[in-house]
């Protein structure tokens, strides 16, 4: 089953992050491309989606570490290797300007 998240930067929709059986993709929102700044050096502004068989390092580094990761994986029943799952469950409370919200309604 695919997992989809909306990625916000400074409360503006920046793009869509997806996990499929084939891997991961991130696509900037068209309106964000016109006015936004790149989320990271490795994710420059572009219309074409970024595709990888691994979670992009920018998003991977947003997942909790150490004691907080232990608490989250235990209380939320998430496998400790599922960083995308951790981000989906906790993306509303990330440090900094990035917020990641699960796309539960199927509308992008």
UniProtKB/TrEMBL annotation:
Pfam families according to UniProt: Couple_hipA
GO MF entry, a single one: protein serine/threonine kinase activity
Keywords assigned by UniProt, alphabetized: Kinase, Transferase
GO cellular component, one term: cytosol
Matching InterPro entries: HipA_N1 (IPR017508), HipA_Ser/Thr_kinase (IPR052028)
Domain spans labelled HipA N-terminal subdomain: 6-100
Protein name as it appears in the record: Serine/threonine-protein kinase HipA
Protein source organism: Desulfocicer vacuolatum DSM 3385
């Amino acid at each position: 089953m695919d997992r989809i998240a909306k990625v916000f930067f400074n409360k503006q929709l920046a793009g869509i992050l997806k996990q499929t059986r084939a891997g991961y993709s991130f696509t900037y929102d068209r309106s964000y491309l016109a006015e936004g700044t790149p989320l990271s050096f490795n994710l420059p502004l572009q219309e074409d989606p970024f595709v990888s068989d691994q979670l992009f390092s920018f998003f991977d580094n947003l997942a909790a570490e150490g004691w907080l990761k232990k608490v989250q994986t235990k209380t939320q029943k998430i496998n400790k290797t599922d960083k995308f799952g951790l981000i989906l469950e906790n993306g509303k409370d990330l440090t900094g300007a990035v917020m990641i919200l699960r796309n539960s309604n199927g509308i992008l």
